[in-house]
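This part of the workshop introduces the protein records we will be handling. To make this concrete, we reproduce a full record directly below.
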Amino acid sequence: MIYNKIHSALNELTQRPSYGMYLRDKVLRATGYDTTQWIRAVYSREWQAFLSTLPLDSLSVLEISPSQWPVIKKNRVAHYRAVNFPEFDITKDSLTEKFDIIIAEQVFEHLRHPYRAARNVHEMLRDDGIFLISTPFMVKIHAHPYDYTRWTPDGLRAFLEDCGFFAEVYAWGNRKAIVANFNRWRRFGWKRDLRNEADFPASVWAYARKQPASCRTT
């Protein structure tokens, strides 16, 4: 009876498309193929380098909608929590916990009320906390469940400043990456072009530190 249940569960798992993708990615990575999305490759590396300078084993982390690409593994930090939008609606839901780091990777473009969400992030951060946020710019519309907003680097900085943060903002992109991602999301693969063309940002991201001022209602 138990064997049949285990066998049935394993069979169901291996028939899922996600399992096939997992096996494919594992084989590709073994050959040196980087399965990171091309438009995420630069800031993903930058974020990992930044996080490596922090005492993660003593910090608490909240990650919003990590999906299949969590930025931080649970075993690297003192406390890790994940919430998923839209089940957890960051525009109106908040936690009583305070966090040292809050991460929102490719989330805020999907929010109807991003200022409300940033206010909640501000409230859930400790006074010396850090908000890591990334958003797309020159990429196709992708509704999960909706797609509302794009920020230029200046726009993201202004948005975060309006919400009580001091932000270091960066951007990366080039025409090859933008064109290649028109039809489907391209992986970085075997070292695609990472040359940066400042007028063609595919991704915009920031390290935002909490300031005492409260967000302005907009």
Observations:
- The chain has two domains: 1-31, 36-210.
- The two ends are 59 Å apart (CA to CA).
- The CA atoms of residues 91 and 117 lie 4 Å apart.
- The first strand starts at residue 34 and ends at 37.
